[in-house]
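Quick one - first record:
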Amino acid sequence: QESTLLSTLKNKKTAMAGKKIPTKLKLLKGTLKPSRENKKEPKAEINLLKAPDYLNPLAEKKFNDLAQLLNNMQISSASDKDALAMLTDMYSIYREMRETLKKVGFVYETTNQHGDTMYRSRPEVSILTDAWKNVRSMMSEFGLTPSSRSRVSAHGENEEDPLNKFITKNG
């Protein structure tokens, strides 16, 4: 007899579904299936994003660098601005914690109630770790990590499809 969990999973097809991937990324990855395409998906205009005013100088520089990169990949749009700002803000926090830890070290010495010396991890280590996880996750969302980038094959506007080029030349 089937377990309750197994029967529940069989009855709920969405129970194991992953997050939705935008059609543009599916197209670039080569995984777009017309039968699964959302014909009513909003189309975002590709444009160069402007950094929000609240970012610190490091985050602003990183924002501008990544915005240019995403624009060159033809996958940036105005709707990405907040997510990119969060990514670059977390990046600046990561870098700030990294610099702090270079100066003060990753652990500090303290004495417990019995007078014994203990070494504890600095609070900045936890902040650094959380910021890194957030940065890595957001970079993956934008196709900016080696593994996520390997699943994307971007073509510039002026690049001709190799199959069309072959057919035109030999046709």
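second record:
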Amino acid sequence: RLLQCPWRAFVERNLRINPVAIPNEVPIQDRRMVGKIVHNIHERAVSWIRAQTDRNTSIDWPTIGDKSAVWVQDAIDHELGSYAGDPVIFRVLLEPVVQAMTDVLLATLYRDFGPTSDRRPDRIEHKLSGAVTLADGRAVPLAARVDRLDRTEEYGKPDWYAIDLKVGSTP
């Protein structure tokens, strides 16, 4: 409740005024905070994978599962530093959500960089900019930031994949 409405949590907990029950009420986590945490974990995982590939060593996939548990705790601890509410409630609400998203993230990273893939992470949090020329000759500037830029070789030429994580609602 604290993440949904701090005022409501204060009224219920401190003033002991209980609201009328709302059927089918489901707690909703702060999607921006979940997004920041998952992006933090993604950055750490990709940096670790990139370090493995830069050393030309094979990626130790069983190890990444153990490392991810530490990354989840570290990312949550980092966000708790700027969180004004109850840290216990924060952990209880967010940890299962973040762990589930991290499991999906690791499965995706295994798909992207596993033993049967020739893709390698090239850049993290990369800014792209350029322009599109319209039919009438006007140039429209474009700028974006992608969460990850992967590189592979296709038929002897470099090929790129731009990856942008979506954690909350779609844009």
